[in-house]
Amino acid sequence: MNIAVLGAMWGDEGKGHITHHLSRNFDWVIRFNGGANAGHTIYRDGKKFVHNLLPSVDFRHSHVNSYLGSGMVIDLEKLRDEVVEAEKTYPGVGKRIYVDKDAFIVEHKHKEEDRSTNGHIGSTNRGIGPAYKDKIGRSGKRIGDLFTQGKPDLITGYSDVLLDLIGKGVTFTYALAWEDVFKASSLLFEGAQGVLLDINHGIYPYVSCSDATVGGIIASGFAFAKLDKVYGVAKCYATKVGEGPFPTELHGQPADDLRQLGNEFGATTGRPRRVGWLDLAALRYACQKGGINHLILTKFDILNGLSKVPVCVAYKKTPVCPSDFYNAVPMTAEIPGWSDARDPDQLAKFISLVETFTKCKVEYISCGTDDSDIMGWAA
Hints:
The protein is an alpha/beta fold. It has two domains: 3-231, 3-Layer(aba) Sandwich (Adenylosuccinate Synthetase, Chain A, domain 1); 235-376, Adenylosuccinate Synthetase, Chain A, domain 3. Helices cover 26% and strands 23% of the residues. The chain has helices at 15-22, 76-89, 108-117, 128-136, 159-167, 179-183, 215-219, 252-262, 280-290, 344-358, and strands at 3-7, 28-31, 40-44, 47-51, 65-68, 73-74, 97-100, 104-105, 147-148, 151-152, 171-173, 187-190, 229-235, 237-240, 274-279, 294-298, 308-315, 330-336, 361-366, 374-376. Strand 3 (40-44) and strand 4 form a beta hairpin. The longest helix has 15 residues, at 344-358. The radius of gyration is 20 Å and the shape is globular.
C-alpha cells in the first residue's frame, strides 16, 4: 500500500506526529517538497525531536528507510546537522537516508536574500523562496552538480559537508535508479507545509514556494507510485504562521488562551501562531485542490472542557480560488464540546459535521503527542 500524508490547512497540523506513527507500517517515508522551512515535531520515548529536512521516520523501526525527493530544496549543512543529531540516539541511521541528486541546493546567498526581502509574507528566512526562484530561473544548483564522476567535486565548496554525509552512510542517488525497489515496497509520502500554502492553489502571495498538494509527488519523479489513500491532516481548530487572510482568526485574550493551551509556537521559528476556529470551508477547498480523500484530525485534547466548540461551516461565497479567501465572511455554528477527547461518543457530532461538509471520511484522530494518542475512528 502507498499513501500520502499532507497538511490540509496552513501547516502545523501535526502531520509529522502522524507520519511518525504510521511510518512503522511502511518500507519508505519520502519527503517530496519544501525544505528546512518545515518543522515536524515528534516524540520518541518521551524525547522531543524536530525534523526540518529528514522525513518523520520512527527510527526505532530498523526496516524503514527515508528519501529526500527532487521536489525539495536542501540546505546540506542543515541536513548534516540533523543526521549527526539523529546518529546520537540511533547509531547507523545515516545508512537509511537517501537523497535525490535532482534536488536543488539552498545556498548561503539564498538565506541572506530571504532575510532581506521576504519579511512581508512571513518567511521563515531559511532561504527557501530564493532557492526556488533560482530553480525556476534556471540558475540554481542541483546536488548532482556537486559530483564529478560519482564523487564530490572538491572545487564546489560543498565537498566537506558531502563527505561528512557520505561518511555517515547517506546515499545520494536518483528516484528512477530505485524504481524497481520502490515498486516492490510500501511507500508513505510526507508533505511539508499545507495545501493553503501551496504555490499554485494556496492563498497567494502568502504561500510557500513548493507543490504542497498530491501533485508534488508526481512532480518529484514518483509518477510510477500509485497512491491508495491521500490523507489530509487538520487540527480541530485552526492555526497559521505568517501574514495573509485567516477568516476564523481569534484576537485578544481568547486567542492568547487558545495559543497557550495548544502551545502554538512555530517549531522552526518559535513565532506565536495565529489561532482560530476550524474552518470547514477552507478545509473542503483544501481537500478538493489537494487531492485529499481521507482526513486525520488532531489536538482534540486541547479543547477538553469547552461546553461549546465554534466551527465555521461555510462562507457567504463558497471558495473556488485563492482570491475568495480575501474578505471571506464565515458562517459559524456551535457544536457541543467534550470533556474527554478519548470518548468517541463525545466527539461524534463534531466529526460527523466535518465529514458532512468536507465529503471526506475521518479515519484517525489524535489527542496528544504519544503514539497511544492516535486512534482509529470508526464511529
